[in-house]
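New to this. Help decode the following:
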Amino acid sequence: MVNRRTTLMLLSGSLIAPRVALAATAREITWDDLLPPGVPYAEIIGEGDMDEANDTWAPIFDENATKLNEELDGAYIKMPGYIIPFDMGSDGVSNFMLVPYVGACIHVPPPPANQLVLVSASEPWPRDKLWDAVWVTGTLSTHLQDTSLGQTGYSISRAKMELYEW
């Protein structure tokens, strides 16, 4: 005798059709999302020092510059940015810092830690596209880490990459 639960399962097709796993959709974020809730960007960078002879400005970061948005730890995200490579192979770059604007970290000083993402790509990004804006998709981790280019607050491993379309 077929019980009521089995009848409902047969009618709904759950015993007949295999279950299909849906791919997770990445949450699209911006650089502002990396700031901790309630901390505006203006409260991260102090006045700083202007070197008029060299026409450079060295901002003074306060303690908010290393505060991270812990709500994003473990989140599957997609965000735009620019590549500052750590190393480059014949296939392209796999390890880099994702930055919010062209030339960040190349020109002193780097942005604050909560505006830098350390990225390890699943496949090398082509050398001839290093100056292009990119989308980076992956699981974001929150932790401070020192690199040769500056302190980062976030990282993504095995990131998927694609060209950022305007």
Remarks:
- Residues 4-21 have pLDDT under 50 and may be disordered.
- DSSP finds one helix and eight strands in the chain.
- The first strand starts at residue 27 and ends at 28.
- The radius of gyration is 22 Å.
